[in-house]
Design brief:
Elements: H1 10-26, E1 41-44, H2 48-61, E2 68-69, H3 71-87, H4 97-106, E3 111-120, H5 125-133, H6 136-142, E4 149-157, E5 164-173
Parallel strand pairs: 2-4
Antiparallel strand pairs: 1-4, 3-5, 4-5
InterPro entries: CAP_dom, CAP_sf
Protein name: Cysteine-rich secretory protein family protein
Pfam families: CAP (PF00188)
């Protein structure tokens, strides 16, 4: 017995129907069927003792006084690390003299001097520190004779270009007295 012929449009219609069914099924997958990962930011602990050892050893080699760790500057640094991690970029108005001054003021951190180093992509603290030493502007901040305290933070991003974002904030609070000119 002969099989009836199917219309010529049937394979294309069947293919279109199957494709629509597959796409509709994606919405039922966990996570809504998104093919891209959702961006997740994670604040990472930083070894403060290691950071102090590195910066103070470096400063002492250059005849400068040691810095003290300041948890308030950790908080300022963490907010900035999240800010740049959200953007997957260090290019932001917040990274300027005015931006740092405004952020320190907003946090209630009265100060005579402030400086900030940002870094992205460094896998660990020694790598970030070496990167700052190798950059003229960042190195100037590490060797700033007017600052007395330091804080640091790191935020990781699961997607994007850089993944690791570092911020070191250096300052001289009013409590440490007005700096003298060298």
């Amino acid at each position: 017995m002969p099989v009836p012929a199917l219309p010529k449009f049937f394979p294309a219609a069947l293919l279109f129907g199957l494709l629509a069914l597959i796409l509709a099924a994606c919405g039922a997958l966990p996570g809504g069927g998104e093919l891209e990962d959702k961006t997740i930011l994670t604040d990472q602990p930083v070894d403060k003792a290691q950071m102090l050892s590195m910066i103070n050893s470096y400063r002492q080699k250059h005849g400068l006084p040691v810095l003290r760790h300041d948890p308030e500057l950790d908080t300022v640094s963490q907010k900035m690390a999240r800010h740049i991690a959200e953007r997957d970029s260090m290019d932001t108005w917040a990274h300027s003299v005015f931006g740092l001054s405004q952020r320190l003021d907003k946090s209630g951190y009265a100060n005579y001097a402030g400086a900030e180093n940002l870094g992205a992509g460094y896998a660990d603290l020694p790598a970030a520190f070496r990167g700052w030493q190798g950059s003229e502007g960042h190195n100037k901040n590490l060797l700033n004779p007017y600052v007395t305290r330091v804080g640091i933070a790191r935020t990781n991003r699961n997607t994007g270009k850089w993944r690791n974002f570092w911020v070191m904030t250096l300052a001289r609070p009013y409590a440490d007295g007005r700096p003298t000119l060298r």
